[in-house]
Amino acid sequence: MDIKACENCPIVLVRWEDIRSEHGWTDSFATTTIPCVTVGFLIADTPDGITVLSDYMKYEKTESWYGCSTYIPRSNVMSIDRLKYDETTYDSNRYSGG
């Protein structure tokens, strides 16, 4: 998979369905899926599925690092909404304790 630089990737909110299973002895069966929500950088969007990263780090002394990737098969995706982010309104002092 070709991972693009995350600063060029859209930030998305993905609603999708996961499987449900029952473990052990029981008198009932799992009959529904579980609705899930994932938010992050959309780094891959293919006919088979999507990959979303929740973490991205770019440090000048190393290569870029990616973390917490989620692959969701296309058949499980219910919706994808692009989120707006304005870099010009980011205040680093707000989050650095300063």
Word description of this protein:
With 98 residues, the protein is mainly β. The chain is 4% helix and 46% strand. It has a five-stranded antiparallel β-sheet, with no helix packed on it. Strand 3 and strand 4 (65-73) form a beta hairpin. The longest helix is centred in the C-terminal third of the chain and has 4 residues, at 92-95. It is elongated and about 55 Å long. The termini are far apart. The model has no long low-confidence stretch (mean pLDDT 82).
Indicate the topology.
Blueprint: E1 11-18, E2 34-45, E3 49-57, E4 65-73, E5 77-83, H1 92-95
Antiparallel strand pairs: 1-2, 1-5, 2-3, 3-4
Helix content range = under 10%
What percentage of amino acids are in beta strands? Answer: over 45%
- Summarize the biggest pleated sheet: 5 strands, antiparallel
Give the overall pLDDT as a whole number: 82
Task: Work out the radius of gyration.
Answer: 18 Å
Question: From the helix content, strand content and strand pairing, which structural class follows?
Answer: mainly beta
Distance between the termini: 39 Å
Overview in brief:
By secondary structure, the protein is mainly beta. It is built from one helix and five strands, in the order E-E-E-E-E-H.
Features:
mainly beta; elongated; about 100 residues; single chain
